[in-house]
Specification:
Elements (H helix, E strand, L loop, with lengths): L1 E3 L5 E3 L10 H94 L5 H31 L8 E4 H18 L3 E5 L6 E4 L1 H17 L6 E9 L2 E8 L33 H11 L3 E5 L7 E10 L20 E5 L3 H13 L3 E5 L2 H10 L4 E5 L7 H10 L7 E6 L4 H10 L3 E4 L4 H11 L1
Helix pairs in contact: 1-2, 1-6, 2-5, 3-4, 4-5, 7-8, 8-9
Length: 449
């Protein structure tokens, strides 16, 4: 029997009723057909299993994707929370510094008044020097705390220029040598004969050396030894601050530049720290393109800090200017606007002692009324006044139709660049950060004269 297949060719079918087809051939063909069917069934089963596995994989991927989306949302929420917490921390630190600086103003002014008193005894003069040193120490601690917050939020900007390293070190020593002498410590300075210079920010590099030398003094006992040596190595300037003080434990050494890391304290050591000074130093040195490392043989065996900065050439020295003529010391009419009664009284007493005519106002509105009612040569105005703050007082004064323009000196516990910029925009001519340097305040008043 023959059948026509789909291609039109004639093939012989295996009909079991056809006596012409051998039974063995029929059986073999049937087995092959069954085998092919079994293979097809196996293939289909495998396809089903594969499809099920694929569906499971898709389900797992979908679940993983959902988890990933949730994790991304959670991570963004955590980042937002961290940024908000960081902002709150920086705002708190700035507010804390402001509030802690306020009491330092009357303390500093009181010590200055005692020091200038005509009948001050040598013992009283010694007491006033101790007060001034401790005020300066507290102000430095507040500066370190604020700088740590500013660096972490990227709010510090350097004003780079070629600097003589020896002059920078001299400025730092003016601050720390009195503390070293007070504790009968021996300080050794080794500078090369040639002038070394680096490109840096004068204030910040002075701060670096002040912190390093001050830290060495803090962790060295009375009568101990501190040394600063400076040398040129290739394209770098290398400065080493070494001491024979308490040293650094091996487990602390790797973290000595981390924020809030402190070495062991002795109960007898009166000058403490916040554990932020070395962190500030490391970040400032890094911003100058340098490095700093610390090493110590162990507790009680002293420590050494090695600072490396890129060197540069100093520009040609400008011709010396003739000294300015001395000021006549003319008496100025000064208005002090300050809501802290102690600070206000001490500022008035201090300026009275210098021969100036001083009036006071203890809130912004009263200060503005006084400025609009009569002429003053100088106004010393606190920025953080209740109600009408100092910025508004000055803005209204400058916008008034009156012809008088007193020299405006702003006082504030906030010292960041944006704070100074806001004060300048409001009309302040000068900006002093509390605790106010009496000499700086006198110089500004005398300049008006």
């Amino acid at each position: 029997m023959f059948n026509e297949d789909e291609s039109g060719s004639m093939q012989r079918s295996l009909d079991p009723m056809d006596d012409t087809v051998p039974s063995d051939a029929y059986t073999g063909a049937l087995h092959r057909h069954i085998g092919s069917l079994e293979q097809e069934v196996a293939r289909l089963r495998a396809a089903v299993v594969g499809k099920e596995e694929l569906e499971k994989s898709v389900a797992r991927l979908r679940e993983a994707n959902e988890h990933l989306v949730l994790a991304a949302i959670s991570a963004q929420g955590l980042r937002d929370d961290a940024e908000a917490a960081n902002r709150r921390q920086n705002e708190f630190l700035a507010m804390l510094a402001h509030e802690l600086r306020n009491p330092l103003v009357p303390i500093s002014m009181s010590s200055m008044l005692l020091e200038r008193s005509a009948d001050a005894s040598p013992q009283l003069l010694n007491f006033t020097k101790v007060i001034r040193r401790q005020v300066d120490h507290m102000a430095a601690l507040l500066d370190d705390l604020l700088d740590a917050a500013r660096i972490s939020s990227g709010k510090i900007t350097l004003h780079l220029e070629p600097l003589s390293l020896s002059e920078t070190i001299d400025q730092a020593l003016e601050t720390v040598l009195p503390r070293i002498a007070e504790r009968s410590q021996h300080f050794e300075l080794e500078l090369p004969p040639e002038q070394l210079a680096t490109r840096g920010d004068r204030v910040r590099l002075t701060q670096v050396f002040t912190n390093l030398i001050g830290n060495a003094s803090k962790y060295t006992g009375d009568g101990g030894r501190i040394a600063l040596s400076v040398r040129q190595e290739g394209e770098d300037i290398v400065a080493v601050v070494a001491d024979n003080g308490t040293g650094i434990a091996p487990e602390v050494l790797p973290h000595i530049f981390d924020l809030f890391t402190q070495g062991p304290r002795s109960l007898a050591r009166s000058e403490g720290g916040l554990g932020v000074g070395l962190n500030v130093v490391r970040n400032l040195v890094s911003m100058h393109g340098g490095t700093i490392t610390a090493d110590s043989p162990g507790v009680g065996q002293g420590s050494r800090f090695t600072l490396r900065l890129p060197s540069c050439a100093l520009p040609a020295a400008a011709p010396a200017q003739p000294p300015a003529a001395s000021l006549s010391g003319r008496r100025c009419r000064v208005l002090i606007i300050e809501d802290n009664p102690d600070a206000c009284e001490m500022l008035k007493a201090f300026l009275d002692m210098e021969g100036h005519e001083v009036a006071m106002a203890q809130d912004g509105q009263a200060g503005l009324d006084a400025l609009l009612g009569q002429d003053y040569d100088v106004v010393v105005c606190d920025i953080g006044l209740p109600g009408m703050d100092g910025l508004e007082v000055m803005s209204r004064l400058r916008a008034s139709s009156g012809g008088a323009r007193p020299v405006a000196i702003g006082l504030s516990g906030y010292g960041q660049l944006e704070d100074r910029a806001r004060a300048a925009a409001a009309g302040f001519d000068h900006y002093l950060v509390k605790p106010v340097s009496p000499d700086a305040l006198l110089a500004l008043v005398a300049a008006r004269a």
